[in-house]
Amino acid sequence: MKIYAGNLSYSVASEDLRKAFEEFGTVDSADVIMDRNTNRSKGFGFVEMSNDQEAQAAITGLNGKDLDGRPLNVSEARPKRTESRGSYRY
């Protein structure tokens, strides 16, 4: 399951995100999204967990929890519709 993690502090790195989610199970990947121009965090990221029960536990356990001074917004990632082509992407 792909999970969205928002409201991240700019100091949170992908490894920090991975460690927070590993408390709930096996993390396949964890990536903080970076701005291409400034190489600074955009304040959100995505985590992938192959076990859906562990992923749901992580969503429940981490949503609203403080990480580096900010409360996380955690939910199942939804496809994003691109305006130009009408296709979907993550």
UniProtKB/TrEMBL annotation:
Which stretches does the entry tag as region Disordered? 61-90
Family annotation (Gene3D superfamilies): 3.30.70.330
Q: What is this protein called?
A: RNA-binding protein
RNA-binding found in the keyword field: yes
Question: Which segments constitute the RRM domain?
Answer: 1-79
**Keyword Repeat among record annotations:** yes
- List the PROSITE patterns hit by this protein, alphabetically: RRM
Molecular-function GO term, any one:
mRNA binding
